[in-house]
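Table S5 (text form). Sequence records supplied for joint modeling of the two-component complex.
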Amino acid sequence: MLLIHCPFCKNRNETEFVYGGPVGANRPDPNLVSDEEWVDYLTMVPNPMGPVYERWWHARGCDQWFIICRDTVTHEILENPSEEP
Amino acid sequence: MKNLNRLESGGRIDRSKSLSFSFNGKLYYGFEGDTLASAMLANGLHVIARSFKYHRPRGIIGSGVEDPASLIELLEEEASGNNLCTNVKLKEGLKAKSINCWPSVDFDVGAVVQYFAKFVPAGFYYKTFKWPTWHLFEPFIRRAAGLASAPKEPPKKGHFESRNAHTDFLIIGAGPAGLLATLMAARSGAKVFLVDQNTEAGGSLLSLKLNINQKPAMAWVESAVKEIANMSNVTHLQDSTAWAYREHNLVIINEREVENVSIIERSWRVRAKNIIIATGAIERSLVFPNNDRPGVMLASAVLTFVNRYSVKPGDNMVLFTNNDSVYSYIKDLKTAGINILAIVDSRKHIASAVLAEAQNVRVVLNSIIRNVNGYKKVNSVVVQSLVDKELETIPCDLLAHSGGWNPVVHLHSQSRGTIKFNDRIASFVPDQFIQNSISIGACNGTFTLNEIFNETKSLLCGVSAHSKPLVYEGKLECSKQSYSIEALWSIDLSKEKNKAFFDIQNDVTHDDIQLALTEGYSNIEHVKRYTTGGMGFDQGKTGNVNIIGMVAKEQGIDLDDVGTTTFRSPFIPVSFGSINGVREGSVVLPFRHTPITKWNLENGAFMYEAGARWRRPGYFPIGGESFQQAVNRECHAVRTGVGVYDGSPLGKFELKGENVGEFLDLIYTNIISSLEPGNGRYGLMLTDDGLIFDDGVAFRIDKHRWFISTSSGHSDAVYQHMLKILAFDHPEWDVKITNITNQWNNATICGPLARKLLKKLETDIAYDNGSFPFMTFREGHIADIPARIIRVSFTGELSFEINVSPRNMLVLWERIIEEGTEFGILPVGSEASHVLRVEKGFLSLGHEVDGTVDPYDLGMDWLMSKKKLDYIGKRSVHLRRSLGKVRKELVGLLPNNPNDAIPEGAPITPDGKKVATEGFTTACVWSVVNERWVGLALLENGHNRHGEEACVRMKDEIIRAKITKPVFHDSDGKLLRS
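The corresponding structure-token record, covering 1063 residues in total, follows.
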């Protein structure tokens, strides 16, 4: 069970959080991209063995969404969100 | 009460406390301090179980968690399924029985299987029972390959418990390494947890008679235990196994001997800054024909039974080894009166110091055991010289063997640490550490006491979690020991007819592994799955490395290149109760209730879960009414009089801020921001892949304040969706969302007489259609209760959704029922609500909205704004539709025979033929207004097929139905706007 650093509540057990997937590209303006670019935005998400930025939601806590950087092999959390919102 | 094989003195048992126990219905006696295994051996029991596949008789092989054979079932008060008798602490009145045998363990009919063994090789079941489906055969095969039955009832007394803890040091294993580490860490003042799976501390020192500082080593153990018992910074758990090493230094421990007798087992979840793994080593088997016969035991187990439990497992013994460790046992075994007939050593040479320990014992070098004779008990062994292949038969009743030692790297490996093969000890040792842990002692490949102490002292110096350095002041002079080994993964088994077991628990033989390799399953993970070697409750603790060695030898590669299979938790079998703790059924996933649950129950509601753990009334049967009669009565009340429905579980959110309008325009398909205060709109939410996510209504309270409702089952997902968009896509927007699902309950009165009821209830809100039209809301009082009334309708009738605070809900509800009696009001359950919405063709998540449909499919494209440049899902809906593929579209179904019901989910195929489906029924109900069955379906190209016939293909019949518009009542919506 991961120990996740919520920017508001500090270190809490993984069971309090909901995983929100890896951070992909920002949502583009759908009127300015080609079909291919739009489909890529929807389907191409990072899935590395190693460090990945990912979103977590403190659902059973303060409701905060934030981003951490986690190594998918060792589970080490390499970067925590800044405590300044 | 004399034990046949009990020695006169010695051992760590309390001879003043005699305990009775029964095995397969017969009464026996043992002593306090015994395990069930040692007591069985003391009583001369040697056939304990029958094997998994071939039903061969099996006895006790190991003395602890490593035992692969002695599985039993505990009965009555201690009832639990598969237990190793080497792990069961003897208690007064314990009752146990053998498993996997019929009619008895001594005479087992299933044993005929072994004569057909060549017809059931590895992979037999997969190959044979694949047509038409494995699942057809699975129950029968599982029964034949039976393990114990699970207890039918929960434990009669006591309960399970779980605890969380944080500590500076968690030390796993209270052998010499773990105890020294504990002393060093504890003396520094750090917070320490010491966990050990034995009933008492000492580890290998409980069995080996060694000296520390010229005194018996156990004296040092006892003084160390005494010292830490007096330290408030140390928590010391014995009879407790650390069985899982999870992320971020979390270790899960199963404590079996809890100080409070009402606790059956306790589970600990300990997060430690540093974890010191000192889990020791487990002796490896040797592989030779009939190496599973009762009376063939691990050498270390024989020593443990003799020294720790004062039990003599045999009188005339042969030892078979490829390493030095058994030579140090000779003195103790002889003292116990065991006659050592020979030591068969596969090595050509051994050190003279080692040989010196075998004075007056025949040592046969460069030889192996070729066979074991005896079916239910060894009666002789066949020794073969590797030089001239000469055979010699030695009569004996005990064969002890040692194939070397495997460091217990399980927890290290679970921590994601890597392991590597070490030639010196011919086994795998920890290599890289990933989490904050170290391995010390035998689990790190260090086997002699002097080296263990030196290693512990030097490795702990480097640990820096605590402010003070860790040191051990004081001398530790130990008995001399030495260790060397020459790997022997298996004797040469070419042309061998007898079975030689690599994995005794799963009956995996030399032939099975050969077959896996021949058929191309050469990866070690494939070998494991194909043969089941290393699976089961022992997870191959004694046999796995031999399989790896064999695979390496056959392929001519290094063991490092073969690698190991994954070491998974749990390290030992753990009861579900202990994992669960006190959280039994009702609190693991608790139901959500509304304030009128009690009223519902008192008024005869049939309650069940209706999505998202909401416990709701399904229907309210009266007298001996059937389901359908009750539902019809409730529907009739709504269509002709008035009904009341508890809509409290509906997801409700209040949104506040300057950008709420823009936000709602982004998440809904239609324009919401243009609403005037007091007004609302129905809307659809899509996901960005263009599929319907949820539907609901949005109302504007004032310029910057709104509320929305979502479907009950989906409100948590919608909440997550909204917050995620605000956090990552539009952090600049001023939108605050409050989940008010539980702050507002509602009673929805619906039906043509709803206004009459409002009048009787007395309200300060004008409720005529002109001043309070459909899709608006008003705030005021009703029956003197502050309320927000919303005119929405999920039934198609005139409806007022009366929202009040939870504390007023029951009062309001009872007033509504009381005042409504003269209009024939009825409480309406989920079932009637479902009928009413199907009659109207309103959507239900999980029925028509199943994650594959877009608004066009449901005929709701009018909700897709053409003015807005962007909203979530827009681009994808249009992109998908531009492909021009046939879509499943929502239609109504009228069965040709009005009394034919179509089961929900039933497939529709062209002309009812056995071909690919073209759609399925999403709902079908008895319509009270039409007095016939009506259904909804998703059907390919359905919008253009109104008037045609659809064929629902059932198992035994075809139900034909007319395709219609998906609305069966008040199609222009006059009633709900009335």
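Note: The domain at 3-79 of chain A is CATH 3.30.2270.10 (Folate-binding fold).
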